[in-house]
Amino acid sequence: MTPIVEVRDLHKRFGELEVLKGIDFTVAEGEVVSIIGASGSGKTTLLRCLNLLEEFHQGDVLIGGEAIGYHLRHGQRVRIGEREVARQRAMTGMVFQAFNLFPHMSALDNVTLGLTKVRGMPRPQAVELADHWLDRVGMLERRDHRPSQLSGGQQQRVAIARAIAMSPKVMLFDEATSALDPERVGEVLETIRSLAQEGMTMVLVTHEMRFARDVSDKVVFMEDGRIAEQGPPQRLFLNPESPRLQAFLKTSSF
Amino acid sequence: MNYHFNFAPILAQWPLLLSGIGLGLLLALVSIAIGSVLGLVVAFASRAPSRWLRSLAFTWISILRNLPILVIVLFLFFGMPQLGLSLDKITSFIVALSLYASAYMAEVFRGGLMSVPQGLVEAGQAIGLTSLRIKRYIVLPIMFRNALPAFGNNFISLFKDTSLAATIAVPELTYYARKINSETFRVIEVWLVASLLYIVCCYAITLVLRAMEKRLVLEKN
């Protein structure tokens, strides 16, 4: 079966600095993959390459079997046009560390914007679908609130609804709980966990090791722009092979 | 001091004063509208990827902001006919104030654009919006809200600048005040009344803008 996400020999540079030095990994349908590693190891950059928020310089990213971002013209690697990029981005859903809700819109309109303007859904249908997902993340009662009237945890749950309502093939979470007050982390993790249990395909960049261990099917450990080790969480967390991962796990709190 | 105030001859001219302030408001509204559209274009140009566009925008801003408005008014009204372009005085003044306003509005909107967090643009990209739609539904609405207080200050300032139209005989409030002054010699009274009219007008504009701010400006959290 075609994997939902396939990354082959991915390289990414910021000027002289190579931050991704040949990444290979796949995510199967329904799989939950956590990317862990120290800050600066390239995990967020990798995630942002999956929805073209970052350009990359070599290698391929395939979402649902479709190569994204680039095509070959006369043997040259050319970035595809803006409309195509936008279409391909909508194949993935992204949840940001800083929530990034549109501050001038209600929770409901945050969710319906993509449905009406990208998916071309009529407003009543978009509202119905948005209500469904807001209910699913426990935010239906506050659908008419502005982001400034919501707590961080509530904003992040709206952001999850906004992303997932677009029916992406895969959900990407970029340190979704790092900006939250400690007492708000649980509600967001619980939301993510329940979506995972329903079979949503997910890639999470996270510092929540316990969560990564409990929820993931696969854990990817990154170190200095490379994947140092990957495999099922039981093996990585209980019997880490590389000394780097052993050291990393020692310094991470569970 | 033994001055006897006599407002009667001035108040008898109320239709003139009223039409003067009306014309002043109209000049300000039209010029600010044109200046805002121009300013928005210049603001976007000042943040464009093309270096050529950016320096064009900054040249535009620095020329117009460093010229006194009176010089622009006189230059256009007396200078342009020499180049074969005669505009009537009202049009000429509107062109001058619009150009001047465009530089200030460009700065207001440039600040507004810089206040839109990159994360919101990325959130728009992530749900598959094209860059035009991101501008339309995310960047512009947030920019206008954040720019509103600065926009208001410039609005008041530009409205007061309409008094300079009197120098080229555009019949706005200052023009009529001078006229009534020379006809009645009630110097103190006429300028008191004119001042009061300007203050009331500016205050009313402030109230309207504040009400808009209250409704529109985004709370930080």
From TrEMBL, chain A:
Subcellular location: Cell inner membrane
Lineage top rank: taxon: Bacteria
Family: Belongs to the ABC transporter superfamily.
SMART domains noted in UniProt: AAA
Domain ABC transporter: 5-249
Bilayer topology term: Peripheral membrane protein
Stated name of the protein: ATP-binding protein
Organism: Salinicola acroporae
Entry keyword Membrane: yes
InterPro entries documented for this protein: AAA+_ATPase, ABC_ATPase_HisP-typ, ABC_transporter-like_ATP-bd, ABC_transporter-like_CS, MetN_ABC_transporter-like, P-loop_NTPase
Keywords attached to this entry: Amino-acid transport, ATP-binding, Cell membrane, Membrane, Nucleotide-binding, Transport
Pfam entry (one): ABC_tran
UniProtKB/TrEMBL annotation, chain B:
Keyword Cell membrane: yes
Record-linked PROSITE patterns: ABC_TM1
UniProt keyword list: Amino-acid transport, Cell membrane, Membrane, Transmembrane, Transmembrane helix, Transport
Taxonomic lineage of the native organism: Bacteria, Pseudomonadati, Pseudomonadota, Gammaproteobacteria, Oceanospirillales
Protein's organism: Salinicola acroporae
Topology in membrane: Multi-pass membrane protein
Transmembrane spans: 20-45, 57-78, 90-109, 188-212
Short name of any one Pfam family annotated for the protein: BPD_transp_1
Subcellular location(s) of the protein: Cell inner membrane; Cell membrane
Location, primary (coarse class): membrane
Protein name as it appears in the record: Amino acid ABC transporter permease
Claim: Transmembrane helix is one of the keywords in the record: yes
Family: Belongs to the binding-protein-dependent transport system permease family. HisMQ subfamily.
Residue ranges constituting the ABC transmembrane type-1 domain according to the UniProt record: 21-209
Superkingdom assignment: Bacteria
